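Z., the sequence and structure:
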Amino acid sequence: MNKNNKQILASAGEKRAAEYLLTCGYTVLCTNFRTRQGEVDIIVEKDQHLVFVEVKTRSFFSVESAAESVNYHKQRRISLAALEYYNQNDQFANYESRFDVIIVLHDRKDHTYNIKHFIDAFLPIL
């Protein structure tokens, strides 16, 4: 798969993940929050919780390989970006936070998506 196709697949996966989170009662605050330290794919809020979501999209059915790609280095970059988001948004100072991972599996045959949501997938690494 070439780089352009990977970007299209990743974008479609992030869109599906955001739609899924909305159906679960979350409010999407931000997508693709970028800082010098890192990026958070989706930031949502629900019940006084601020949730930083990493989305991994795959066109093959391997939850394990997608989950493994959210390694220590990736977790640290997400954690640093989350800290920056808190620093820029004082209104969330009293919110609890957590880090979720959503894996979106795309079936090329019938163009369907299957979502696996891992709540509280990792602790922040600062």
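Residues 10 and 57 are 6 Å apart (CA to CA). The helical segments are 3-23, 63-68, 72-88.

Let me know what you think.
H.
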